[in-house]
Design goal:
Mean pLDDT of chain B: 89
Helix content of chain B: over 70%
Low-confidence stretches of chain B: none
Radius of gyration of chain B: 21 Å
Structural class of chain A: mainly alpha
Distance between the termini of chain A: 52 Å
Oligomer: heterodimer
Strand content of chain B: under 5%
Helix content of chain A: over 70%
Mean pLDDT of chain A: 91
Largest interface: A-B, 74 and 83 residues
Number of strands of chain A: 0
Number of strands of chain B: 0
Low-confidence stretches of chain A: none
Strand content of chain A: under 5%
Largest sheet of chain A: none
Radius of gyration of chain A: 18 Å
Order of helices and strands of chain B: HHHHHH
Shape of chain A: elongated
Chain lengths: 106, 167
């Protein structure tokens, strides 16, 4: 039988993959995609909690799904702004490699 | 949903999620991310969240990934040339990620609610579009309007950022 724990572990694995991508990759677009993976891992655990914690009427807890809806909306706005910043960076420096952008590095 | 389908879709999601990180070609990463989101959407549907599953495909696999592919095309990114990698940083990053997963695993293992199996729903029909919409326009009306302002600000920000002469 599939339990809540299975969904949480799968969500944790997806979060870990995204986290490893942010730490290990040096291409700024791949880092951005890994951020999306982490947001979606959080969404998966929210929806799992919504299904496994039924309300008094015996239906899934829709508060969590509204929260997921907000996360998806904010993520879409964030992707648009982030990609615009990447394009502006590429115009200024002709690179998408994070190690080439180190003016603020101590 | 049968356990076989759960493991199948979870495996698809995790394998293509790992492919996003491993691939050196950004286009291959972006397309793997689309497949990963499809698997995730199937998992949402296995949790009876059909509305969330549909907007996952529409917004992420549709709009967001098209935006990513469009930017990759615009910047004309090729497969990364292999640079000298800092071995200490790679091993350290992998170790930190692994430590995070071990922590998540142990926390979920101690959670007593993690043993819960699927509780049966009161009725086979889940009116989730109706219920989510009702909550959005009653309890969460203020956050919903704030999100509207946020999207407007993001739109203006993108236009300002993509003007040619950035001062």
């Amino acid at each position: 039988m599939v339990t809540l724990g299975h969904y949480l572990i799968v969500s944790g694995m997806l979060f870990t993959i995204g986290f490893a991508g942010v730490l290990l990759r040096r291409n700024i677009i791949i880092i951005f995609m890994s951020l999306e993976l982490m947001l979606n891992a959080a969404n998966l655990s929210l929806v799992a909690f919504s299904r496994f914690r039924l309300t008094a009427a015996g239906m899934p807890d829709y508060n969590a799904q509204v929260f997921v809806f907000f996360i998806i909306t904010v993520a879409a706005a964030e992707v648009a702004v982030g990609l615009a910043i990447i394009v502006a960076l590429y115009r200024a420096r002709q690179t998408t490699h994070v190690e080439d952008v180190c003016s603020l590095k101590f | 949903m049968s356990p076989i389908l759960f493991w199948l879709f979870a495996l698809v999601m995790l394998v293509f999620g790992a492919a996003v990180v491993i691939n050196r070609n950004p286009i291959a990463s972006a397309l793997s991310l689309v497949i990963c989101f499809m698997g995730l959407s199937a998992l949402f549907m296995s949790l009876d969240a059909f509305f969330i599953g549909i907007i996952q495909v529409l917004v992420y696999a549709g709009a967001v990934m098209v935006l990513f592919l469009f930017i990759i095309m615009l910047l004309d990114l090729r497969a990364e040339v292999r640079r000298k990698t800092n071995l200490v940083a790679v091993v350290g990053g992998a170790a930190v990620a692994l430590a995070l997963f071990v922590q998540i695993y142990s926390v979920v293992g101690q959670l007593s609610a993690a043993q819960k199996t699927f509780p049966p729903l009161a009725s086979a029909k889940t009116d989730d579009v109706h219920n989510v919409g009702l909550l959005l326009f009653t309890n969460y009306n203020l956050p919903f309007q704030i999100i509207g302002v946020l999207v407007l600000v993001a739109t203006i920000g993108v236009i300002v950022l993509s003007k040619r002469e950035l001062r």
